[in-house]
Amino acid sequence: MEQYYGPQPGFWRDFIVIMGAIIFLLSGIPAIIRRIIGAERRKWFSNNYINDFHKKGDKLLRIVFMFVLMAVAIVFMRKPLIAITISIFCMIIQLSFQTYVEWKYAENRKNYVVSLIEIGLTFVVLIWVLFWIDKNL
């Protein structure tokens, strides 16, 4: 009886399809919705702070999440899926804070709607990827 090590047959094909769908869900759909409802475009990899509260809160969250992720990486060293899940929840919390600040302080009130949609899509992607990983590994 021959034992097979490595990913199952068809894994990489499924992986590429899943990654394409994730990229479309997390970047394509919010961009389309921004255009439809007239929200402002965001620059990639830039910090668009609305006010000083947003800047301080975002930096505090990033520092806390950095320590949380380091602790999770040490404690759950043999279970990387837990670290991935917690990092995505950290991202959802950060998006939630951004949504709150956009809702409360932004001039263009349509921006927070897109952020809410991004939170929902991120959560859907998290659940989808966890089910896919559970099925394939």
| Distance, first to last CA | 21 Å
Number of helices: 4
Mean pLDDT: 87
- Class of secondary structure makeup: mainly alpha
- Which regions have little confidence, pLDDT < 50, spanning 5+ residues? none
Beta-strand portion reads under 5%
Looking at how many chains there are and whether they match, the oligomeric state comes to single chain
Order of helices and strands: HHHH
Integer-rounded radius of gyration:
18 Å
Instruction: Let me know the largest β-sheet.
Output: none
Share of helix among residues? over 70%
Q: How many strands appear in the DSSP assignment?
A: 0
Q: What characteristic shape results from the CA principal axes?
A: flat
Detailed description of the structure:
The chain has helices at 11-37, 52-75, 80-105, 111-136. The chain has 137 residues and is mostly helical. The radius of gyration is 18 Å and the shape is flat. It starts with 10 loop residues before the first helix and ends with a helix.
